[in-house]
C-alpha cells in the first residue's frame, strides 16, 4: 500500500488511502483477528442457539442473574439505561461468577451499541446472548 501520494486523499484532516481495504488491512490497522468465526448482527433466529431450549428471557436471567423490569423491555431488546445502571461497575472483591456476569453485560453493550447498533440507538437486543454465553470462546471470533 505505502504512502503513494496519488492514492492518498484527505477528509477532515485525516489521510485516507484510495482503493480496496481487505481483511489484512483491518487486522493490521485495528489489531483485530480476521481468522476464526465471525460475529454477525443478523442473527435473527437466535432462539435456536439457546441452551436447553429454554425461553430467551430465562436464559438471560441465568447468564446475567437479573431480569429487567417489563417497562425496560421492548420485544427482545433492553433499554441501554437499565443495562448501564445495572452493570455500571463490578463490585470490589467480586467472585468469579459476578465478574463473568459483568463481562457478559459489557460485551453485550459493546456489540449492541458500538459495533451493531440498531437505529433506536438506545436498546440492546438479546440476540447477543449466544456470543457471551461461553466467555472462554470469545477469543475464537474475528
List keywords for this structure.
single chain; 142 residues; alpha+beta; three-stranded antiparallel β-sheet; two-stranded antiparallel ribbon; 5 strands; 11% strand; globular
What's the helix and strand layout?
Layout: E1 8-11, E2 14-17, H1 23-30, H2 56-64, E3 73-74, E4 77-79, H3 80-86, H4 96-115, E5 123-125, H5 129-132
SSE arrangement, N to C: EEHHEEHHEH
Class per helix and strand makeup: alpha+beta
Q: Kindly report the average pLDDT value.
A: 76
Outline, from the CA principal axes? globular
Helicity level: 25-40%
Number of helices: 5
| Rg, nearest Å | 19 Å
Description:
Residues 6-16 have low confidence and may be disordered. The strands form two sheets. The protein has a three-stranded antiparallel β-sheet. A two-stranded antiparallel ribbon has the order 1-2. It starts with 7 loop residues before the first strand and ends in a 10-residue tail after the last helix. With 142 residues, it is α+β, with helices and mostly antiparallel strands. The protein has helices spanning 23-30, 56-64, 80-86, 96-115, 129-132, and strands at 8-11, 14-17, 73-74, 77-79, 123-125.
Amino acid at each position: 500500500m505505502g504512502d503513494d501520494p496519488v492514492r492518498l486523499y484527505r477528509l477532515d484532516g485525516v489521510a485516507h488511502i484510495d482503493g480496496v481495504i481487505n481483511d489484512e488491512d483491518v487486522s493490521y490497522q485495528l489489531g483485530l483477528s480476521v481468522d476464526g468465526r465471525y460475529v454477525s448482527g443478523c442473527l435473527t433466529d437466535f432462539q435456536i442457539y439457546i441452551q436447553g431450549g429454554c425461553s430467551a428471557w430465562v436464559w438471560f436471567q441465568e447468564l446475567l442473574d437479573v431480569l429487567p423490569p417489563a417497562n425496560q423491555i421492548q420485544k427482545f431488546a433492553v433499554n441501554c439505561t437499565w443495562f448501564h445502571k445495572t452493570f455500571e461497575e463490578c463490585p470490589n472483591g467480586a467472585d468469579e461468577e459476578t465478574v463473568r456476569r459483568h463481562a457478559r453485560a459489557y460485551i453485550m453493550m459493546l456489540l449492541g451499541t458500538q459495533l451493531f447498533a440498531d437505529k433506536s440507538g438506545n436498546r440492546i437486543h438479546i440476540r447477543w446472548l449466544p456470543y457471551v454465553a461461553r466467555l472462554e470462546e470469545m477469543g475464537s471470533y474475528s
